[in-house]
Amino acid sequence: MRLPRDITGEALVKALKRFGYKIVRQTGSHIRLTTQSGGEHHITIPHHSPLKSGTLNAILKDIAAHFKISRDDLLKQLFD
């Protein structure tokens, strides 16, 4: 599945709530999220519009590795 090219940081934060991520803090334009699902995991999302494709890809790969699913499966769950 192709990466969405027009996703904002705010939209990604909302989508990640499905996986139990909650906002812990925000420093400048970066939002720190944490989940306890599958063990504690932290991720930082830039509050940019839109997110650069490389940044989005790195974030999604990190989350997919934490939940032990493929990046494509993660994309389907987040954006379908």
Automatic annotation (TrEMBL):
Show the Pfam families listed in the entry.
HicA_toxin (PF07927)
Superkingdom field: Bacteria
Molecular-function annotations in GO: endonuclease activity; hydrolase activity; mRNA binding
Specify whether Cytoplasm is a keyword of the entry. Answer: no
Q: Which UniProt keywords apply?
A: Endonuclease, Hydrolase, Nuclease, RNA-binding, Stress response, Toxin-antitoxin system
> Entry's InterPro entries?
HicA_mRNA_interferase, HicA_sf
Is Hydrolase one of the keywords UniProt gives this record?
yes
The UniProt similarity line reads:
Belongs to the HicA mRNA interferase family.
What name does UniProt use for this protein? Answer: YcfA family protein
Q: Which organism is it from?
A: Gloeomargarita lithophora Alchichica-D10
